[in-house]
Amino acid sequence: MSLGIIWIVALVLTTFTVAYVGYGRYLAGFVDLDDSRETPAHRYDDGQEYVPAKKPVLLGHHYSSIAGGAPIVGPITAALIWGWVPAVLWVAIGNPILGAVHDFVSLSGSIRHEGKSIGSILGEYVGKQGKDMLLWFAFLLVILVVAVFALVIAVVFNAFPEAATASILYVALALIFGVWLYQLGLSFALGTVIFVPAVFVAVWVGIQFPIALTPPAEDAFREGTFVLLGGFPLELLGEQNIAAWVVTILVYGGIASVLPVWMLLQPRDYLSSFLLYTGVGGALLAVIVGTFITTTAEPLTINIPAWYGFMGSDLVPFLMPLFPLLFLTIACGTISGFHSLVSSGTTAKQLNKETDAKLIGYGGMLGEGLLAAVAICTVVLIAATPAEGGIALALPNFADGGGIILTALGVPLFGGTVFMGLVLSAFLLTSMDTAVRLGRYMVEEIVGTPETAVEEAGANKVVNTSVIVVIAFVLLGSGEWETLWPLFGGANQLLAALALLTATVWLANWDESKQLISTGGPMALMAGITVCGLLWLAGYQVLYQGIVLGGLEGTFEVVAGIVQGLLALVLVGLGVALLWIGYGNLKTVRRTDAVAADGGETAEDDD
Prior knowledge:
Elements: H1 6-30, H2 40-43, H3 55-67, H4 70-82, H5 84-111, H6 118-126, H7 128-159, H8 161-183, H9 188-208, E1 211-212, E2 226-227, H10 240-258, H11 265-292, H12 322-330, H13 337-347, H14 356-382, H15 397-406, H16 413-447, H17 453-459, H18 461-475, H19 481-510, H20 517-548, H21 555-597, H22 603-606
Parallel strand pairs: 1-2
Helix pairs in contact: 1-5, 1-14, 3-11, 3-13, 3-14, 3-16, 4-5, 4-12, 4-14, 5-13, 5-14, 5-19, 6-7, 6-19, 7-8, 7-10, 7-16, 7-18, 7-19, 7-21, 8-9, 8-11, 8-16, 9-16, 10-16, 10-18, 11-16, 12-19, 12-20, 13-16, 13-19, 14-15, 15-16, 16-17, 16-18, 19-20, 19-21, 20-21
């Protein structure tokens, strides 16, 4: 008897519900959330970056910014490499005790430090050197986020030109909605009634008028697709259309990141939250309905192996050991350092009340875990593993599998597929341009008050935005998805360890009676996993497989591979140095507290 995907949904819903009710409540009391305190959004309201937002609006921004495409891409990739069981277990167990804790304490710590970034918070306790090192680490991660998300969006647009049209219309609707709310001062409720349905109408328009920038490969070309360009001078993953979309998407990300938050970020993320709620909630409901009430065109059963082996499946042309690469590959579905940048970069500047942090911080991450569970359901259901195209071209499985699942609710198969493609691309677009904006913030924090011509250029938002998108494009040159994605995951989760270190240092300096296991335990675990993973990627996959054995061909690919390897080593160096600096602060604080408690005797005196 085939195992139904309902068991994946049941396991994740159970663990997440118990965690939110129990552990989430404990953490809210642990950091003493109190609505009588004025949040930074009210204290520094400037109409640009610090803007109090209604809870549903801010949840929409935060949820769609953190969810993005990573909890879709990572679990799909992991399930196809190692099997669905390790992927599901890491999401169901790791998310509530690692990722949700990380997001919650990053947001809570930031609102207690005037909405400052995790780098600035750490700097208050360990000094400017530690702050700048963490900011540089985060800046390098942002470049990786921009690169991999731009590539995945391009892959989806190439596979589903209907989603490309719908995504363009969705961005245009968000811009109009921003003017509606903040320039014309019109009704928020009426705007919701008008613009949310309009987003779904965009799906229908996309089906009628699909677009491609250049002609896709013959086997991927859909009849009726409007082709805008005759050709493009570059290829990525063997497609000119993918390369053209990557360049277009990077330009979009740069422009979007310099606009005021009211113009695009807030209204777009609010609208995208309805896509996310509908996509995730609808898919979960469809799994339940399709299992117990109706039937779909295909049975909702698991069609890939539970376990491929410790070294991975034959879809990967080289060794991919489950430890440590499973954890780096799933990335945001369980824990993500990028979330600490969102929590302390944009969300903390818009939080209306302190108690909103439980739902938005802890609950938002659980919502991302649900998206990861849906992603696993889609890939185990569709079971399309295009060995000839590699893991990267299996990513549209999310749209194909999601379309099948939604047929349980009576949604036409093709319409459901295009809608799920829009869900994927919309969240990737959201995360990508939010990442560029966060990178701009970090450079501005590092520079401070510019005193030289170089610092003036670094503080210029057009200049530093351009640097981010250009380097991101160079990183894509190798075309090696199996290296690029774990590199992003390793950097991302090592940053998560550093964000947890920042929270641990804050808690230790706040009160000597605070227990540090809730943040310190996950910090130590993720630090060990990610350092091992990044060293494996730099030494084995890039240096040995790519350079020594000639896996990378052509000057552009080799240069991109070398840049990736060096980046991995730089990230490890920065991460280890920061962990050591933070450990020194913790040791000093706890020793000082012990001295005060015992009347002045130190541990050395006792010896």
